[in-house]
Structure formats: C-alpha cells, structure tokens
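Cross-check.
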Amino acid sequence: MAIVVTYHDDLNEVQGDPVMAELLRAPHARAPFDRLDWWRMLEKHCGHFPLIAVARQGQHRAVLPLLRKQRDIVALANWYSFRVSPLATPGADTPALFAELAADLAGQAPRITVSPLPNENGETVLLEQAFRKAGWTVFRRQCDVNHVLPVNGRSFAEYMAERPGPLRTTLKRKAGKVTVSLERHFNPESWAAYEAVYAQSWKGEEGSPAFLRAFAEAEGAAGRLRLGLAFAGDEPVAAQFWTVEHGTAFIHKLAHTEASKPLSPGTTLSAALFEEVIDRDHVDLVDFGTGNDPYKRDWMELVRPRYQLEMYRSKWPGNWLRIFRAALRQTLGKG
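Predicted model, tokenized:
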C-alpha cells in the first residue's frame, strides 16, 4: 500500500483525522509531550507554530512534531518538554513510514534538528536510520540526561531506606519544621502560592507562566495533577508541580524560597510527594526530566541519555561548512 506524506500547520487538521486524534490523546499518548493538547499550548502560549509531518499508510500513521525556524526545521518542543519523540500507530511499519517521511522532508528544509530524543525504545536509532536511508547526512550526539526512578514494586518506606544517609538525616531533623499540603485538582489560590514561591527562589524567570498554568489546569481537570506546597507557619516556602499518568510520575517544576533554605522545605516536600505517588498512585516510574542537577542523584537511581540528531542535505552549498564543523566536533568528541 502506498505511503502518503502530508504536513499540517493547523492543528485542527490533525484533530480532524480520527486515527491521528486517537493516537495523540490519552490513553494512547502516554506522556504529556506526546499529546495534541500539549502542542496546542506550545502554539498558544509560546509562539511555537507547528509543522506536523505525517506519513499515512492505510489506517496507520507515523508522526513527527516539528516547527519551522527560518530556513531550518526543529523539533516542536521547548524548555518544559522532557523529550520529543516520533509517534506511530500500533502495528505500523515504522521504518518504512519514517524513511518515506525523511525523504519527503528533503523538499521542506536543508537542515533538520531534533532533540531531546529518547532511545529507550529505539526512537533515536529509528530516526537516524530513516534519515540516512533517505540520503541525509546525519550526526548524533548526546545532548542531555534524564534521571528516573524505577520503583520495582517497593513501598515508600523500602525506597527511603535505600536513600543516602545525609538525605535521611536531613528528613529526620527537618520534617517537623514545615507542614505539607498535597492537591490533585487545580486550585487558583494554591497556584498563586506556587508562583509566589518560584518568584522568591533561586530559579530564573519562568519561561512561560501562562503555558504552565494552562497545563496545570488541564492536568487538574483530568485528575493527573499532583501539586505540593510546604508552609512555615502560614507562609508558603516550597512548591512542586508533578503529574501522574500511565504508571509514571513526572516532576515538572520545584522551587523553595531562598530565605527558607535552613528549613530544607524542598526535601520534606519531595519526600511527601514520593510517598504519594509510590504508596497511593502505585507508579512504576518517577521521571525527573532533563538536567544533571546533583540533588537528583539522591532521589533517582537511573540516568538515561537524551540525544540530538542533526540532519543535513549534503548537496546544498549552505550546509557544507556546517557539515564540516559537525564532523569536526564529532571527531574531537570521540577523541
């Protein structure tokens, strides 16, 4: 059966295809970053105008979420995205579909960059092979890491017993210094407290407060939100924004006020949320997103690589210097 490639900058067109609409919503989309609603929020709140590349073969679809950036094409993602991933309907011939998609994309841009890509299920290898087969010059490099905790059936108490001694000591000494509130539905007052904590924290300016609030509201409506606040007296001093779906808890944001550091409110709040998702939600995995912050190692047990793929049309003269530089970086990196 023939493979047909189409491109969509109107997400209503994507929604109008029943097969794609089903693929890009829960429960088929097993993480926020794979959902059509996530892409809509990127468009509305972050100015990311999509280019959704789709290969169709009968009732099967292969989808790559992209956006144009001047002459180039990049992944449809931003600082809130733990990853971007190629998506396909179950049973699809994914190597053939993505190879056809890669070949057709040659007419759309001379360079395509996709990151951060996972490879737990061969996603990076799949795309790399598809673009190479289609004649692109491809460079792969590790661009980030992803800290995760496989729960492996443990209770929270069993998990905590295996944490580093200094972390357990801090919890024992500081747990009574703050009170903790956990919520599963969006509460405007609690969100205002989260924003107040963030504004007084060591974190930089929030990338898109409107995006994050819209996401929290949607997750709260779906019952996936886990918002934690720690209070010293009546004052919020730490805040964390998690979501839970399909056996995974995603840690999106966390912050504490600079003035509250002696109380270690973030440690106490983290412990309460880990207990919530392990003992009550019974998750299989906790995902701490990207970044190699040292504190993540106290809570997480596995580090997974995240990759960037740079794909070039080698016959386009404007790419020659870029290809040379990319090849040199790869050679020096291996050396």
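The mean pLDDT is 95. DSSP finds twelve helices and 13 strands in the chain. Passed to J.P. for a second look.
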